[in-house]
Amino acid sequence: MSGRSTSSRRSTAAALLFVAAVLGVLVALQLLPGQRPAPVSAHANIVSTSPEHGAELDEPPAEVVVVYDEPVTFGPYADAATVVNLEGERFDAGPARLDESRTRLTIPIQADLPEDAYIASWRVVSADTHPVGGSLQFGYGVPASVLAPSEPEEPSSALTLAVGLVKGVLYLGLVIAFGVPAAAAVLGVSEAGRKRIRTGTVLGFAVIALASLLQLVTQFLWLRSSGGMQGEAALADVLEFARSEYAMPVWVRMALLGATLLASKGGSERRRLIVLLSGGAAALVTVVLNGHGGGSPVALISTVLHAAAATAWLGGLVSLAVLMLRRRLSEDGFRRMGRWSLYATICVAVLLASGMLQSVDAVRYPQALFETTYGWILLAKLGLVAFALLLGGLGWRWVRRVSRDNPDGRPAPGQTARLRRRVRWEAGAAAAAIVVSGLLSSLEPAGDEWAPLALQEAEIGPYHVTVQIAPARLGPQTFKVTVLPLDPAQPNPPELGVTLQQVDGVLGDLPVEFPYRLPAPLSPGEAVPVTFTSAAVNVPETGEWEGTITLVVDRLEQYSGTVRYEVR
Fold this sequence. Notes:
It is built from twelve helices and 18 strands. The strands form four sheets. Strands 9, 10, 11, 14, 15 and 16 form a six-stranded antiparallel β-sheet that branches. The protein has a four-stranded antiparallel β-sheet with strand order 1-3-6-5, with no helix packed on it. A four-stranded mixed β-sheet has the order 2-8-7-4, with no helix packed on it. The longest helix has 36 residues, at 191-226. The protein is an alpha+beta fold. The protein folds into three domains: 46-146, Immunoglobulin-like, CATH 2.60.40; 156-246 and 290-448, no CATH class; 451-567, Immunoglobulin-like, CATH 2.60.40. It has helices spanning 2-30, 157-187, 191-226, 235-242, 247-263, 269-289, 297-324, 331-363, 368-371, 373-405, 415-441, 446-449, and strands at 46-50, 55-57, 63-68, 81-85, 97-98, 104-108, 116-125, 131-140, 454-460, 463-470, 475-485, 495-502, 510-512, 516-519, 530-533, 537-539, 543-552, 558-567.
C-alpha cells in the first residue's frame, strides 16, 4: 500500500513538473521579440510618416520612415517595401528594416535622388496575422500630386476561406485530443471507454499536427496573394516565413504535442490526465496567438477562455454521444448526468460571457453586424450555438422528467436512444460553430470592415462638386472632393478648404486638411476635373454633419457652398 502511494506521488510530481515546463515554454513564447501583446486595435495603424504624404521637399530624403501603433513583421514578400518614380523606376536602396520594437519601419533611399515625384509602398503583417499595407507620395523639387495613389491588393478570397477552414479543423483536433478526455473524466466512463479515448487522443494529435502544417502552408500562400505575387516562392521567402512570429507558435505547438504524447505514456490515469490537459491548454494558447486573440492581454485571455470552454463543451457532447449513451443508461450512469449538467452549465456560461466580450470588441457598430461578411458569419455562428443550447435545454428537461417519473433511477427502454439522437444533433451544431469560429478568425473584424460611404453633390459657383466621405462613421474619416468646371474656360481652383459643423449639436469648426491635389489628364476643349484628397479627420459624434466647402481660385475669386451627410 505504501509503495503504491509513493509511486502515485512520484507520478503526480512528474506530471506537475511537466506542467511547470509547459508554462515556462508559454512564458518564453510570450517574451519573444515582437510577440508580447500590447493593447491594440484589430490591425496595426500608422501613427506617423516621414516624409508626410503629399509633401514637397527641397532636399532629397535619405529614407522613408513609417511608425505603427503596434509591432509588425515582414511577411513572405520578395519586395516588402519599394520607392518608385512616375516611370516605375526603383529608387529604394536595399531591404527595408524594422527597429527592435518592430513599430518603426525604415525604407532606405538611394543617394543622389533626382528631382521627381515618388511613391513609397510597403507591406507588413500586423499582430493579428493580417497583412497591412500603405503608401505615401512625396515630391523632391516638384509637387507630389502627379502620381495617382495605389490601392493595396486584397488577399485571395479562396485562400482566406482555406485559412479559416484549416483553423476550424485544428479546433476540432483539440476537441478530440483534449476536450473528450477531460469530459470523460468528469462523466466517469468505463475502462473500455477509456481505451477508446486513448485511441481517439492519438487521432486528435494527428489531426492537430496535420492542420498545423496546413496552417503554415495556407497562411504563407495567403500572405503572398495579398502582395500580388503569383509566381513561385523563393527559398529565402519560405525560410523567412518559417522563422516568423506567425510560424513560431506553430513550431512550439508541434513540440508540445510530441512532449505531451511522450509524457502521457504510462503512469496512473490521474497523471496522464494532468499531463494531457496541461499540454492541451498550452497548445490552445499557441492557436489563439495566431489570430485576433493575439493582439492584447484582454483579447488573449478572453479568446483562450472562449476556445477552452467550447473545446470542453463539445468534448462532453462527444463523450455522451459516443461513450455514455450507446445503450440504456444504468442507475450509476444516470446519476452522472447530473455532473454533466453542472459541467455543461459552467462551459456554456464561460462561452457566452467571453463570446459577448469578443463580439462587442470585433463588431463595435450595430450596423456592422448586418452589413459585413464577418457580421453575417457571426450571426450564423450564433444561430448554431442557439440551436445547440436549445437541444441542451431539452436534454436537461429530459433528465429531470426521467428522475421524477422513474423510481428505479434509470430511464425506461428506448428513452436513452432518443436522448442520444438529440445529443448527436447538439454535438453536430457545436462542431459546425467551432468550424465557423475558425473562419471568423481569418476574416477582418466587422468593426474594421464596415465602412459606409457618403456621396454628396453640389453646384458651388461655376463648379460641380462631388464629395465622397469614407468611412462615414464615428472616428477617422477621409474626404475626396472632385471639382469640375461647368465652363471649360473656367480655371480649376488651386486650393480648397472644408470645415465641419454638427447640425443639431455644439461641435463645429473642425478643419479638414487636404495634403495633395490630383488633376485629371488634359483634354482639349473639355472641362478637366481636379480631385482633392484629405488627411484623416476625427469626427467625435454620430448624427448629421454639415461641411462648408470653399473653392479658392485666387485671392479675389472664392466660392462657398455646403453639403450634409450622416455619420453612423
